[in-house]
From TrEMBL:
UniProt KW keywords: Acyltransferase, Membrane, Transferase, Transmembrane, Transmembrane helix
Organism placement in taxonomy: Bacteria, Pseudomonadati, Pseudomonadota, Alphaproteobacteria, Sphingomonadales
Gene Ontology biological-process entries: lipopolysaccharide biosynthetic process
Name of the protein in question: Acyltransferase
Boundaries of every Acyltransferase domain copy: 10-294
InterPro entries recorded: Acyl_transf_3_dom, Acyltransferase_3
TM stretches of this protein: 12-28, 40-63, 75-100, 120-139, 146-164, 170-190, 197-218, 224-245, 252-273, 285-302
Highest taxon listed in the record's lineage: Bacteria
Molecular function per GO: acyltransferase activity, transferring groups other than amino-acyl groups
Record-level GO cellular component terms: membrane
Keyword Cell membrane attached: no
Membrane among keywords: yes
Any Pfam family hit: Acyl_transf_3
């Protein structure tokens, strides 16, 4: 029997925050460059994004160990829009076959990092898809029990980062602990659905995610700080935060967040992102408008129909078996 996961509304707010942080870090002038705020803000958004991803994936597999269903639904969520964006970039950039294939197979985040112009941000999808593959193999071989290896895997990746002095990287074995930390959170919530935590805990933890995005020893804790901030909000969040994070606006931004992420980098590589510094920032409002518009249309007319198709197919297969 397939178990439907309960919806956690506050996670929509976190998803909205994560994509807004990424967009801000990539597209806006956030203070003097010597402070490195752009990189820190974008990295904070990615840490939250990966935490949410790991939490969702582990929660799905804790409830249902149907690996084909899991892979079908997740890959239909990620691949179509990513492949369309990649094909557009491949054609526009006259990309070599080797670079094109490594991007289409979601391995371009691995050394020597053959990322495309306009597609540099898609490294995170490589980490995501590679995680899907590994976790699917683990569950296929070990069932639900395999998920309890996740904390050890997370700590192993973090230990490797500490040993090599890697505070930030796009390479999977130096970054996947951010997803694994979110998966650890899913294990905690699964076994301890009700925990007393002070409502202000999230407010205290959230700024630490940004602090952990700088190249200092605190950066090794970034995955766990992001997971802790999200986790404490699941158990208890301040009233204002809860209202904002569960609002219709947050829900809409969360809904189109994947399209915003994929499309913003592609659009920056067009006329909308061209010119010297002044010209680029004059065009920024238009870039934001077009990005949000395209993401909305993409979700409504492209992503959601494909998702529904995948849901119907996997549901029909489950009923037949």
């Amino acid at each position: 029997m397939f178990i439907t996961l309960p919806r956690i509304p506050i996670l929509d707010g976190w998803r909205a925050v994560s994509i807004l942080l990424v967009l801000g870090g990539h597209l806006l002038p956030l203070g003097p460059s010597r402070f490195g705020l752009n990189g820190a803000i974008a990295a904070s958004g990615m840490a939250i994004f990966f935490t949410l991803s790991g939490f969702l994936i582990a929660s799905m597999l804790l409830a249902n160990q149907d690996v084909p269903r899991f892979l079908t639904r997740r890959l239909l969520r990620i691949l179509p829009l990513a492949w369309v964006a990649m094909l557009v970039l491949i054609i526009l950039n006259n990309t070599s076959w080797s670079v094109a294939i490594s991007n289409l197979l979601f391995v371009s985040n691995l050394p020597p990092h053959p990322l495309m112009n306009g597609g540099g941000h898609l490294w995170s999808l490589c980490v995501e898809v590679q995680f899907y593959a590994v976790i699917a193999i683990m569950v296929a071989l070990g069932g639900k029990r395999a998920l309890y290896l996740i904390p050890a895997l997370a700590l192993s990746v973090t230990a490797l980062r500490v040993f090599t002095g890697t505070t930030m990287s796009i390479t999977t074995w130096f970054r996947v602990d951010e997803i694994l930390a979110g998966a650890c959170l899913a294990l905690v919530v699964h076994h301890y659905p009700k925990v007393r935590v002070p409502a202000f805990a999230t407010v205290l933890l959230a700024p630490l995610i940004v602090a952990a995005a700088y190249p200092t020893p605190v950066a090794y804790l970034r995955p766990y700080l992001a997971a802790a901030a999200v986790g404490t909000s699941i158990y208890a969040a301040p009233g204002l935060m809860s209202a904002l994070f569960t609002s219709r606006l947050a829900g809409w931004i969360a809904e189109i967040s994947y399209g915003l992420y994929v499309l913003h980098g592609v659009l920056v590589d067009t006329w909308l992102g061209s010119g010297d510094k002044l010209v680029k920032y004059v065009k920024r409002p238009l870039l934001f408008i077009v990005t949000f518009l395209f993401a909305h249309l993409s979700f409504k007319y492209f992503e959601r129909p494909i998702q529904k198709l995948g849901q119907r197919r996997t549901t029909a297969v489950n009923r037949a078996t």
